[in-house]
Amino acid sequence: MGINFEDWSTRISSRSDLTGRLTHLTKPIDGVDIKEKTFDQINELAVDNLIKILTEQKLIGSSRKGFIVGNNKAVCFQETPLYGLIQNVEHEKARRLRNPTEKLRYCGVGLSFIKPIVYHKYNGRPVIYEKTEEAKRFLPQEQWWRIVDIEYGFNEPWSWNITDWTHEREWRVKGDMSIDIETDYIHIILYNPNTVKYFLEKCPPKFIPHLNGITTLTSILM
Q1: 167, 65 in Cβ contact below 8 A?
Q2: 170 within some domain
Q3: Which of 27, 163, 183, 213 is geometrically suited to a Cys-Cys bond with 151, CB 3.0 to 4.6 A?
Q4: What does the DSSP 8-state code read for residue 146?
Q5: Which residues pair with 59 in a beta bridge?
Q6: DSSP three-state, residue 88
Q7: Mean pLDDT computed over 70-76
Q8: Do the domain assignments include residue 166?
Q9: Is 78 inside any structural domain?
Q10: Residue 67 sits in which domain range?
Q11: CB 46 within 8 A of CB 28
């Protein structure tokens, strides 16, 4: 038996491990050189991409190159509370500090949507965590975009080869996603106060009244 929106909201508000929102974290536009950039500079470049998304009102789906299985693109979201979101961002930051040549997956800049809007309006769904080849056996090919590989390869005690992205609690929307800034209750996610200042300086003023809020992620760690 289902519950109404008020009961659903109450359950979420009483649990620190749940969220009613889905967040798409972005990164600098493809082709922009970030090799010598600091993390703050990378986040500012991601703000440029965020403003491009707001201007075009479109999220471009990732392809196979972005680890999407099958022939369909998909827009990726994290279903994680804000304190988990900043922990994921800090993990990505530390990972690239250890190895600057690694692919940048995302940084502390993005858009957050109410979960029922993504579910009903955009047909967004949770991903399916499973070994890729196993999932292909029970899913029709048109659903392969939902597969995220998981593997706990056991060789000997405490010597495992692990593939595990479950900390992102990922959802996806198939293909590209045309958004509506006036009706989607879009909440902006920014990394730190410098990023907020940069966003407010660069963002066309016409968009500001339609935003459902701005969160500064590093403030959650203090």
Answers
A1: no
A2: yes
A3: 163
A4: G
A5: 177
A6: helix
A7: 94
A8: yes
A9: yes
A10: 23-221
A11: yes
**Cβ atoms 22, 126 nearer than 8 A:** no
The total number of structural domains in the chain stands at: 1
What three-state secondary structure class fits 215? strand
Asked whether residue 6 is domain-assigned, the answer is: no
Q: CA Rg, the chain, in Å?
A: 18
Which pair of structure tokens corresponds to residue 37? 């950039």
Amino acid at 124: G
What's the CA gap between 217 and 192, in Å, rounded? 6
What DSSP string describes 71-90?
S--EEEEE---HHHHHHHHH
Tokens of 36: 């010598």
How many residues are listed for the chain in this entry? 222
| pLDDT tens-digit readout, 168-213 | 999 999 999 999 999 999 999 999 999 999 999 999 999 999 999 9
What pLDDT, in 10s, does the model give residues 9-48? 888 888 888 899 999 999 998 877 887 788 889 999 999 9
Contact 115, 98 (CB under 8 A): no
pTM for the predicted model, two decimal places: 0.92
